[in-house]
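Weekly puzzle thread! Below is a chain. First person to post its structure in token form gets bragging rights.
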Amino acid sequence: MASRTITLVGSVAAAFGLAVALAGCTGGSAAPAAKASAAPAHDVPTGTELAAALLPATALPAGFTEDGVGKADSGRALSAAAPTVVLGQAGCSDILNAVGQPGFGEASYADDAFTPASALGEFDETLFEFHGSGAAQFVAGLDSALKHCGSFNTSDETGGQEAAKLTLGTAPKLGQSALSFSVWVNIGGAQMVMTDVAVQQGTAVVFVDNSTLATSPDAVDLSTLAGQLLGRLPAMP
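Winning reply:
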């Protein structure tokens, strides 16, 4: 994903021609994961394997094309690094600027991003694999953290403050645990909305995000796309 800076997602903000970034962009992530270290066991799929499972542009509504940055993944090595974003301690803006990107203690990841024909928005997809019970803990921790994010302010690239609002949606009936949330940000008289769905199944977490102008919604069905990604997850080693 291109960078998401609520300084709120860089690539999405750029697509709007706005100097604000909203959380969740993926595909060629500008936020690097913590340095990978050898895991105790090769117990989950690698980033290379996850990249092969990502949805192609043909899974999206007509007009979406892959971002020029293309896919990003953690490669063939698995990580045992600690999270760089601690959900129980980070603020709302920090979480939203990082969610959908590596840095949450995952063992491996892969992501990609797509832009609609209007160039007003972005769809992002990320696959994470965690060691042990890390996937379930991540989704539970994210759900708990987001419950404390109602209305808050975030800063744009000039240092100005923008009003943001987050609401939790109805979680899709997918996987073993799931959540949905939307973030609205008012920028120069326009309202940008980002909607996200995260689904945990075993050691994996599927994360999909769609950002657009509130006045120009598109036909992206995140629950359906998350379900398709679940069906494409690689087999355990």
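Puzzle host: Confirmed. Bonus trivia for everyone else. Confidence is low (pLDDT under 50) at residues 2-40.
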